Amino acid sequence: MRVLLVEDDGMIAQGLQTALRQSGFAVDWTSDGRSASGALHATVFDLVLLDLGLPQQDGIEVLRGLRRRGDATPVIILTARDEIRSRIAGLDAGADDYIVKPFDLDELMARVRSVLRRASGRADTSIQHGALRLDPVTHTVEQAGVPVNVSAHEYAVLEALLQRPGAVLSRSQLEDRLYGWDEPIGSNAVEVYIHGLRRKLGSDVIRTLRGVGYFVPKT
Ligand code: CA
């Protein structure tokens, strides 16, 4: 899943990016309102974490613009303790939740999971494919009911493939799902994650179409 983080405080942004990436999200970070609006026009995100006090265009304006276009991407606003008015304005403008700075990272991640669960509109958001079951909220994998320990990047690769069984995804399409704008891409990273998944789940779960990419066969 891809998250847009809009935060002009570099320290907070750094901590959030680390926490989100450790949980398996691809994170794009922008530090002003105008480039946030631009990014939201250009890219589909699964979630936006939006600071309110921002240079160029404030967070409320970014949010209003998003909702005016009928874009229902879940938004959690990040507010300071003394910004009660703007917190209310944020909720009125269509935010799904808010968290008050300074916040606890575990609490933020719990809110992220709860907003994503609600946004999916179902109590059970898991992806079932044969014996495999993925939970996109907790990023856990089970095979025949047995938990399988996969890394955040392995999870992201598997989720991308399982969202469209039978569809072949190229290496660069998979890289898009793995990395934010400013993350370095290892030259053979995708192959490494595929190898790891085959080792853990069995060699025939993910197939290679030579010269094209990877796919999970339809059940
Ligand atoms: Ca700020």
Report on this structure.
The protein has 219 residues and is an alpha/beta fold. Helices cover 41% and strands 21% of the residues. The protein has 8 helices and 11 strands. The chain has helices spanning 10-22, 33-42, 59-68, 84-92, 105-119, 152-163, 171-178, 189-201, and strands spanning 2-6, 26-30, 47-51, 75-80, 97-101, 127-129, 132-135, 140-143, 146-148, 207-209, 213-215. The strands form 3 sheets. It has a 5-stranded parallel sheet, sandwiched between helices. Helix 2 (33-42) packs parallel to helix 3 (59-68). The longest helix has 15 residues, at 105-119. Calcium ion is lined by residues 8-9, 51, 53-54. The site of calcium ion (CA) has 5 residues, from loops.
Which percent range fits the helix content?
A: 40-55%
Q: Helices and strands: which structural class?
A: alpha/beta
Shape: elongated
Low-confidence spans: none
> Which ions and ligands are bound to the chains?
calcium ion
Largest sheet: 5 strands, parallel
Strand order of the largest sheet: 2-1-3-4-5
Number of helices: 8
Mean pLDDT: 89
Number-wise, the strands total 11
Instruction: Write down the Rg.
Output: 18 Å
Strand coverage percent: 15-25%
SSE order: EHEHEHEHEHEEEEHHHEE
Distance between the termini: 24 Å
Task: State the main characteristics.
4-stranded antiparallel beta sheet; 219 residues; alpha/beta; 5-stranded parallel beta sheet
Give a topology summary.
Elements: E1 2-6, H1 10-22, E2 26-30, H2 33-42, E3 47-51, H3 59-68, E4 75-80, H4 84-92, E5 97-101, H5 105-119, E6 127-129, E7 132-135, E8 140-143, E9 146-148, H6 152-163, H7 171-178, H8 189-201, E10 207-209, E11 213-215
Parallel strand pairs: 1-2, 1-3, 3-4, 4-5
Antiparallel strand pairs: 6-7, 7-8, 8-9, 10-11
The protein binds calcium ion.
The site of calcium ion has 5 residues, from loops.
